[in-house]
Design goal:
Elements (H helix, E strand, L loop, with lengths): L5 E8 L9 E10 L4 E10 L5 H12 L4 E7 L3 H4 L4 H8 L3 E5 L7 H7 L2 H12 L5 E5 L2 E8 L3 H10 L8 H19 L1
Parallel strand pairs: 1-4, 4-5
Antiparallel strand pairs: 1-2, 2-3, 5-7, 6-7
Protein name: UPF0215 protein HAPAU_11080
Family: Belongs to the UPF0215 family.
Length: 190
């Protein structure tokens, strides 16, 4: 990855005290490969909703940055199972998309089945089933789990290693999460 290459990392500030239908804050951070922050963008998604794919695509479009080479997401089910469709986003933005999670899990099928019923459950599960398989990766002696569209395991390993100076959280996701939390606190103070 070239030093001037840019990655858009998107994360949310989800707090468990929010009810379904309320807004959860999203933030996007454009970060260069040398880990310099080069832009921010903000949006929101609905807790327990089905608007995450459109919201992520909207953040990318709002930035209007041709120099962004990759889209990096913190997980695929923000705001209480608002499942993101990685292949759809990759197709729409024409860039590789990589979702990263930080804990081992048995997947979302069981939790989605317990939390939803009927069409809401079926739509989420259909979206979840379309996603690529999750793979384990070691970065700086930390275990990450990634799934992506438009990149293979070797490219994902290089991307995540380049963007993770220490610990296990890639810089675009770390900055996006900080920005989302700050924006969330700002919203609450209004």
């Amino acid at each position: 990855m070239k030093a001037g290459s840019r990655v858009l990392g998107i994360a949310e500030s989800y707090r468990g005290d929010r009810s379904p239908g309320e807004a959860s804050t999203l933030a996007g951070a454009v970060v260069r490969a040398d880990r310099v922050v080069d832009g921010l963008v903000f949006g929101s998604i609905t807790v327990g909703g089905e608007d995450a794919t459109d919201a992520v695509r909207g953040l990318f479009s709002e930035l209007d940055r041709e120099d962004v080479r990759y889209l990096l997401l913190s997980g695929i089910a923000p705001a209480w199972y608002n499942v993101v469709d990685l292949p759809e986003i990759a197709d729409q933005i024409g860039r590789p998309v990589c979702a990263v999670s930080f804990e081992e899990s048995e997947g979302l099928e069981g939790p989605v089945k317990r939390a939803f019923s009927g069409d809401e459950r079926d739509r989420r599960l259909a979206t979840y089933d379309r996603q690529p398989a999750r793979e384990r990766i070691e970065v700086n002696s930390e275990t990450l789990y990634w799934r992506g569209v438009g990149l293979d395991s070797a490219e994902a390993r290089e991307l995540l290693s380049t963007l993770t100076p220490e610990g296990g959280r890639p810089e675009p996701l770390r900055v996006a999460r900080l920005a989302a939390r700050a924006a969330d606190r700002f919203r609450e103070d209004l």
